[in-house]
Amino acid sequence: MRVLLLGLFFMMKPLLYLSLLSPCFSWAFCFDEAGRFYNVDPQLLKSLVTVESSLKPNAYNENKNKVGEVVSRDFGLMQINSHWFD
């Protein structure tokens, strides 16, 4: 019996790590709720987030001019530009 439980633990361990490291499951609910609230297709929201930030909530990007100076920054899942913060 212990061998069976130990084997089951080692089989489930990778799935546990994947579920903890992948927030996509919890976000599915958020996309549905936001889509319903704003009358937007949840698949469209998820597609935008996937393209903009690869589903990384802490995504950050700096936009530079030809000289290399930072002119604006993009933040978060939807990569909201710092221009809109002013």
From TrEMBL:
Domain of life: Bacteria
Record-annotated Transglycosylase SLT domain positions: 30-83
Source species of the chain: Vibrio crassostreae
Protein name as catalogued: PilT protein
Pfam families according to UniProt: SLT
InterPro entries, per the entry: Lysozyme-like_dom_sf, Transglycosylase_SLT_dom_1
